[in-house]
Amino acid sequence: MPTKRSDSDKIVESSGNVFRDLGIELTADEAFKVEIARAITRVIAARDYTQKDVAVILGTDQAKVSNIVRGRLETFSMERLIRYLLALGINVDVHLSQTKDRRKVLPLAKGQPVRPDEGRMKVHASAAACG
């Protein structure tokens, strides 16, 4: 039964990242896997595939497709998810760029290197590309 919203309920605008909004910080690898799974899910919906249809295309079983659609990605590597996208006819383009931190990794006193800022992963998925 749906619950009624009271006047005291506070509506907060999303940051655009549901995980951050819920206080969950994902690693770059986890966030990338989530984006790939979202692209796979969009393909399934846009093409009206069943999970069984997709399992046949990917050469796997329906349970694994279900796990992807439900975001249960712990057992999937990024490489495997990318292979699944390719099998579904989706091109995967990789763009590499320098971080804003342009420090070189040079030895300092006592042999300690300076670490540049860690890079990030970002997915630019066109909705049309996944349909």
Task: Report on the architecture of this protein.
The protein is mostly helical and 131 residues long. The protein contains 5 helices and no strands. Helix 2 (28-46) runs parallel beside helix 5 and helix 3 packs across helix 4 (62-69).
Shape: flat
Gyration radius over CA: 20 Å
Oligomer: single chain
- Cα end-to-end separation: 35 Å
Average pLDDT: 80
How many helices in DSSP terms? 5
Largest sheet: none
Q: Secondary-structure element sequence?
A: HHHHH
Structural class: mainly alpha
- Number of strand elements: 0
- Which stretches are low in confidence, meaning pLDDT under 50 for 5 or more residues running? none
| Helix share, percent | 25-40%
Strand content: under 5%
Helices and strands in order:
Elements: H1 18-21, H2 28-46, H3 51-58, H4 62-69, H5 78-87
Top keywords for this entry?
131 residues, flat, mainly alpha, 0% strand
